[in-house]
Amino acid sequence: MSNLQAVVKVKMLSKSYNSLKAVDQVSFEVAPGEILGYLGPNGAGKSTTIKMMTGLLTPDEGSITINGYDLSTHPMDAKKQFGFVPETGALFEKLTPYEYLLLIGRIYKIDTAKLDKKIMDMVELFDMQTHVRERMTTFSKGMKQRITICAALLPNPPVLFFDEPINGLDPNTVMIFKELLRKYASQGKAIFYTSHLLDVVEKICDRIAIVQKGSIVAQGNLDELRAMHHQSSLESVFSEITNAEDAKETVDSFMENNQ
User: Fold this and answer.
1) For residue 111, how many other CB atoms are within 10 A of its CB?
2) Measured over all CA atoms, what is the biggest interatomic distance in the chain, rounded to whole angstroms?
3) Where along the chain do its domains lie?
4) 177: nearest Cα among 158, 157, 203, 214
5) CATH 3.30.365.10 at 8-81+157-257, yes or no
6) C-beta of residue 162 within 8 angstroms of C-beta of residue 191
């Protein structure tokens, strides 16, 4: 954990759906300049956690503080502190990328004199110049994801939440995105990142939390996790912690039974 004061504080967070405990007393912090990778198998509680952190779901118990604002008591102030890229973004597809980003900028009250340049700089970064005036109804998933990322970054918030953000992106855009995250972290932004892509998390995250059946079962930087579990990679640590079947053995068994 950084010696800087945490920007995101999650304490004893819990959420149930009927008798299913989706998130069970989860606690963690994200400091300025830190990228926290939040990992777990399907159904482990990752999406429920991030939906509570962004105000899309109300926790049964626990607290969420974002840049000093309690999400339950000061929801609008807390939500102004972060940008969010959900796993499946929702855009106003009848608009063009420029119109949509202009709307986002005005909602966040970005200085009108600076807004146009900020939008065009973001569009150029993600190589969307030729599409910026086109309606988004015919855009690919990857193109829509670029615009969702631009919308989250445009207000330049101190906190960023990403839920599987590189789904659908081409390799060049992924490289730009990863480098951008490193730059934002170096500026002191707190970044919460969920993904199934362990190799990406291994490369960009400063610290990793692994969740299983709604609870955090391991937390630390990559070196700490590897040493603790006597493993050489994040993939092997993840497999051991989550009791995942060995991929090679699984495939070998399949091939033997399907000759």
Assistant:
1) 8
2) 67
3) 8-81+157-257, 90-156
4) 203
5) no
6) yes
CB count, 10 Å around CB of 225? 22
Give φ, ψ of 240 to 5 degrees.
-65, -45
146, two tokens? 């670029």
38-90 per-position pLDDT tens digit: 999 988 999 999 999 999 999 999 999 999 999 999 999 999 999 999 987 77
Give SS3 for 225: helix
Measured distance CA(29)–CA(221) in Å, rounded: 13
Alpha-carbon distance 154 to 115, whole Å? 9
Q: What is the C-alpha end-to-end distance of the chain, expressed in Å?
A: 51
- The residue length of the chain stands at 259
pTM of the model: 0.90
**Which among 167, 179, 206 has a CA at the least distance from the CA of 86?**
167
Q: Which helix (H) or strand (E) holds 218?
A: strand 215-220
CB contact burial 165-178 (16+ within 10 A = b; e otherwise): bbbebeeebeebbe
Query: What is the rounded CA–CA span in Å between residue 209 and residue 161?
Result: 15
Q: What is the residue type of 189?
A: K
Residue showing tokens 């940008």: 83
- Per-residue buried b or exposed e for 4-25, using 16+ beta carbons within 10 Å of the residue's own CB: eebbbbbeebbbeeeeebbbbe
The pair of three-digit structure tokens given for residue 199, joined into one six-digit string: 């190799």
